[in-house]
Amino acid sequence: MRHGTQHADAATAELETALRGGPFHVALRAAITARGLPLQRVQHHLTRYGVKVGVTSLSYWQQGARRPQRPESLRAVRALEEILQLPDESLIRLLATAGEGADAERPSSRTYRSLVEASGALEKLLAELDAPLDGGLLAMGHHERVRIGARRELLGRDSRHIVRAHQDGVDRYVAVHHGDPGCAPDLMEVRALENCRTGRVLWHQQTGVLVAELLFDTRLRAGDTFLFRYGVEDGTAGACSEFARGFNFSGGQYALEVRFAENALPVRCHRFTQHSPAAPRSGLQELPLSSRHRSVHTVEQRVRSGVVGIGWDWR
Q1: Cis bond leading into 23, ω under 30°?
Q2: One domain, residues 65 and 191
Q3: Does 170 share its domain with 264?
Q4: For residue 53, which of 62, 114, 155, 295 sits 20 to 30 Å off, Cα-Cα?
């Protein structure tokens, strides 16, 4: 009995240390160990909170192989704090702190804390629009053109989509725009450019997240393809040093082009990928800047879930 008590005391001490200093995966693993719960039981408890997370994902989280970053995953982390009898915000705080540490090693305009806050805001905005994660559409192709202005600001972007419906009755697409820190989403403009019209537009002022309905003039049947194009006029924040696109699902081609104002050319550009906004950057590749067209681009023949982006350095 004394051995069991000593083991429990050691597990509790390890948990307290991990909650103070992290990192997230060590604290999560220590909490699960201290409570004596197998991952299957943890998953069962999460379902009672209305959160669906696989045992494999939980295993990856506690090993540090992956980090929760989607809205559903962040809901799971908050539920885990209750299930594992941890102080409020203890695990979320470690996610934010770890993300900020990672940002110190790789230049970024956003901390992980801001991404956590933005994901929560996005979740609420999508719920208000009653928009599912994929909207009943599969991406076949996506060409995105980003414009950087004379003040080095994100002027805006145009997106052209080729999609296929995987269910009947799809008649809209919900676009998401993340402005740079300090932006004013209430001053942005969403433009329907081809084969769509603008519906409801909602935003969250503090995080700079904007969502907009692009309405089709037809209801697609399962298997139907559709092409449409829209744009977002921004220009409300300071200097921009990267643009990234997140993907919840794999599949389809993605082409990202960044075009710079004549008097605002960067000294170098590079492509990067991430498994999630909190993950280390990989796939780093220097990209040539066309001096004549003042543009740089990257093409993903088949995207994977995660993040694809282009970053650049100013003089």
Answers
A1: yes
A2: no
A3: yes
A4: 114
CA 73 – CA 51 distance, rounded (Å)? 8
φ and ψ at residue 96, rounded to 5 degrees: -65, -45
Strand partners, 144: 159, 256
Question: How many alpha carbons lie under 13 Å from residue 177 in its C-beta half-sphere?
Answer: 35
The rounded percent of the chain whose pLDDT value lies above 90 is 52
What contacts 24+ positions apart, CB below 8 Å, involve 90-95?
90/19, 90/27, 91/24, 91/27, 91/28, 91/31, 92/116, 94/19, 94/22, 94/23, 94/24, 94/27, 95/24, 95/67, 95/68, 95/278
Please write the tens of the pLDDT for every residue from 222-277. 999 999 999 999 999 999 999 999 888 888 999 999 999 999 999 999 999 988 76
Q: Which domain holds residue 297?
A: 135-313
Helices assigned H by DSSP within the chain: 2-21, 24-35, 39-48, 55-63, 71-83, 90-105, 112-128
pTM recorded for the entire structure = 0.65
Same domain, 99 and 144: no
Q: Are 239 and 126 in contact (CB under 8 A)?
A: no
